Amino acid sequence: MPFANLKVPAGLLDHAQKEELITKVTDMYAEAFGDDVRANTMVLVDEVADGGWGIRGEVLTLARLQQ
Predict the structure, then answer these.
(1) Residue 51: what are its φ and ψ, rounded to 5°?
(2) From start to end of 17-63, where are the E strands?
(3) pLDDT tens across 12-59, in order?
(4) 29 near 2, Cβ under 8 Å?
(5) Cα distances (Å, whole numbers) of residue 27 to 14, 66, 67
(6) Band of the pLDDT at 65, cuts 50, 70, 90?
(7) CB count, 10 Å around CB of 25?
(8) What span, in angstroms and rounded, lies between the C-alpha atoms of 32 and 51?
(9) Within 10 A of 20 (CB to CB), how many other CB atoms are there?
(10) What confidence score (pLDDT) does residue 64 get?
């Protein structure tokens, strides 16, 4: 079963954007492994709490990402 776990900042994506991500990732797996995997492909979108992640040693917040 193909599985993708996407980590995104909490509040960054609305329902429609999450749905689009899930659809596109599922399509990508189906393209790579054949359409038969589509029925068993799981995509999990985890929302990380604001300030709960960082890059280059800097803590990221939703406000900073939206600048």
Answers:
(1) 80, 5
(2) 42-48, 53-55, 58-60
(3) 899 999 999 999 999 999 999 999 999 999 999 999 998 898 889 999
(4) yes
(5) 20, 28, 31
(6) confident
(7) 19
(8) 34
(9) 12
(10) 85
User: CB 9: neighbour CB atoms within 10 A?
Assistant: 19
pTM (predicted TM-score)? 0.82
Write down the pLDDT at residue 1: 86
Q: Is 42 helix (H, G, I), strand (E, B) or coil?
A: strand
CB 8 within 8 A of CB 52: no
Q: Which amino acid is at 62?
A: L
Strand locations in 1-67, DSSP E?
3-9, 42-48, 53-55, 58-60
Two tokens at 25?
A: 């990732």
